[in-house]
């Protein structure tokens, strides 16, 4: 584990912003660098929404985990591209929530392509629990992810699980995005669930779009942005859990979930959970 963490850190890029670190910085986490904090400041100067959007996304992820564990009875999770957010309160990271709410000891497998996130999690989470694993992988290389030895052996592929695809923002080719969803749908056992988070421009006022597009071109040039109709197409044929594909603050909100509640579209993200037949 130590050698793997060292290799990951050797590939670490600290001078350019990365989307998972951006959300971590905006939510007050520690898994980010100056470049990420600077980008958050630039975005907030254009439209003061990124910080609230990041919190809305974290609240959605927490609600999704709780629902899948308590209502659907899921006790194993493969979480792809969450960044293992450090902006969540202590004891409320995604695997903590799964452990507290699942009916049995849940297994949580994180798949991350960010070397810093992988190395930190392997050093600070794995040594303290046998129920969490972190592997290096990228949604864009989904075949390699699914062939990974830890992925194949840590989870029980004969029982239902939840596959949470939180890095759809990296799938900027539509055909490949559909392929990734198809591979996950057909690989997951029957009665599993697919969770999806996706960035959109649908809620941005037209007068702000040019500035936002210019900033993304400079900071996150390959970020995939899709309309609600395009995101819905990725989920075609699946049975969506109520309330369906909605702005993330609208997905089963709790009383304490306040981020972007008054203006859900300012979250900039759609979310959905679907049953895999």
Automatic annotation (TrEMBL):
It holds the Pfam family Methyltransf_19. InterPro entries: SAM-dependent_MTases_sf, SAM_dep_MeTrfase_SAV2177_type. It comes from Nonomuraea fuscirosea. This is S-adenosyl methyltransferase. GO terms for biological process: methylation. GO terms for molecular function: methyltransferase activity. Keywords: Methyltransferase, Transferase.
């Amino acid at each position: 584990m130590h050698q793997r963490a060292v290799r990951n850190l050797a590939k670490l890029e600290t001078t350019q912003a990365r989307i998972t670190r951006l959300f971590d910085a905006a939510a007050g986490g520690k898994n980010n660098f100056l470049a990420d904090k600077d980008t958050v400041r630039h975005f907030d100067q254009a439209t003061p929404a990124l910080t609230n959007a990041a919190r809305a996304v974290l609240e959605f992820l927490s609600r999704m985990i709780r629902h899948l564990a308590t209502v659907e009875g899921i006790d194993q999770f493969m979480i792809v591209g969450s960044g293992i957010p450090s902006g969540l309160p202590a004891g409320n990271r995604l695997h903590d929530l799964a452990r507290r709410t699942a009916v049995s000891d849940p297994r949580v497998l994180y798949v991350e392509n960010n070397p810093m996130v992988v190395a930190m999690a392997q050093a600070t989470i794995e040594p303290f629990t046998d129920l969490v694993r972190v592997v290096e992988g990228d949604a864009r290389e989904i075949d390699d992810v699914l062939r990974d030895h830890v992925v194949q052996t840590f989870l029980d592929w004969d029982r239902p699980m939840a596959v949470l695809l939180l890095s759809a923002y990296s799938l900027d080719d539509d055909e490949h995005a559909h392929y990734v969803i198809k591979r996950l749908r057909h690989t997951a056992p029957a009665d599993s669930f697919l969770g999806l988070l996706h960035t959109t421009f649908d809620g941005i006022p037209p007068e702000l779009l040019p500035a936002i597009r210019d900033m993304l071109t400079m900071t996150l040039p390959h970020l995939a942005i899709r309309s609600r109709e395009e995101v819905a197409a990725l989920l075609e044929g699946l049975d969506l859990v109520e309330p369906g594909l909605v702005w993330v603050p609208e997905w089963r909100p709790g009383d304490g979930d306040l981020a972007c509640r008054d203006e859900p579209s300012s979250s900039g993200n759609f979310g959905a959970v679907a049953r895999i037949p």
